[in-house]
Amino acid sequence: MRRMSVAQARERFARMPFAAHLGIGSAEVAPQRAVVTLPYRQENANPGGVLHGGATASLLHLAGELAVWSDVDLAAPLVLGPVDVTIQYLSPVLGDELVATACVLRRGRDFFFVEVTVCTPQQRLVSKGLLSYRAADYTGRPRRLLSSPEYLAAPSPATATPLPWLDGPYMRKLRMTTLHQSPGRVRLCLPCWTPLTGAGETLHEGVLASLCDTAGTMAAWSLVRPQGARGATVGMQLSYPGVPAHEAVIADARVQYRSEELFFATVQAFTATSRQPVALGNVTYRLLEAPP
């Protein structure tokens, strides 16, 4: 298979609306390797000024994707997209630029395993991730598909006032809105609009990760007294069934278990009208409450 050149990979990345929306740029591209940067912007932060975990997750996704693109032929009719991602958040970011380095650990015929390391320019480790990515050509054979999702029952009431201490710049930048909030459960909605799309006209998986991280975070905060509390995402694991999101997406997060300061939430993200799953996974959140 003729492999895509580094120059072509750079050009495709430069045309991606979501990368431009966040301010992410490519610094280095080589076969099976990519380095991308994210300058600190207040609009990508939480209310307290700390970079939103969704922005870090988006940077990780985009770096891994670019590393894969540098080693495939995008002129072929490929089905492209991440399959699974596991992210660990190691330290908060306040005011620092981020540098994400992605390297392909192993490549099969049409499947890639990519490791991504996110650091500050001073080499302070911020996040580590492992991304699996599909680049398959199904020409000449029918794809075997099955969709039989089971979602949580619709919550009541259907609308809710957002948690004001979490409604920060990054949520507003992506136009997330709160549909429901009750103790341990949150539903968010994200519109499909051009700045949030990837190389095609569908929502980028980094956007979906941002939505899931935010929903899991808010579900944890809905169970505590906010005064004097502080928290951060510990880790997130998501699977992407490969359903293209051409419409608004709803994320439904529910805390399944709490162990003192640790909150374990499941998240289901699905298209608002067709109700097809676009991301499924878990968010682990650590939240330290002030003494009573």
Describe the structure.
This protein is an alpha+beta fold and 292 residues long. It has two domains: 6-136, Hotdog Thioesterase (Thiol Ester Dehydrase, Chain A); 169-288, Thiol Ester Dehydrase, Chain A. 19% of the residues lie in helices and 37% in strands. The chain contains five helices and twelve strands. The chain has helices at residues 6-14, 17-22, 53-69, 169-174, 205-221; strands spanning 25-30, 33-38, 79-89, 98-107, 111-119, 125-136, 177-182, 185-190, 230-239, 249-259, 262-271, 277-288. It has a twelve-stranded antiparallel beta sheet with strand order 1-2-4-5-6-3-9-12-11-10-8-7. Strand 10 and strand 11 form a beta hairpin. The longest helix is centred in the first third of the chain and has 17 residues, at 53-69. The chain is globular, with a radius of gyration of 19 Å. The N and C termini lie far apart (63 Å). The model has no long low-confidence stretch (mean pLDDT 91).
Question: What can be said about this structure in brief?
Answer:
By secondary structure, the chain is α+β, with helices and mostly antiparallel strands. It has helices at residues 6-14, 17-22, 53-69, 169-174, 205-221, and strands at residues 25-30, 33-38, 79-89, 98-107, 111-119, 125-136, 177-182, 185-190, 230-239, 249-259, 262-271, 277-288.
- β-strand percent reads 35-45%
What is the string of SSEs from the N terminus onward? HHEEHEEEEHEEHEEEE
CATH class of the largest domain: Alpha Beta
The named CATH superfamily of the largest domain? Hotdog Thioesterase
Overall geometry comes to globular
Number of helices: 5
Strands, count: 12
Estimate percent helicity: 10-25%
Give the end-to-end Cα distance, rounded to a whole number of Å: 63 Å
The residue-averaged pLDDT reads 91
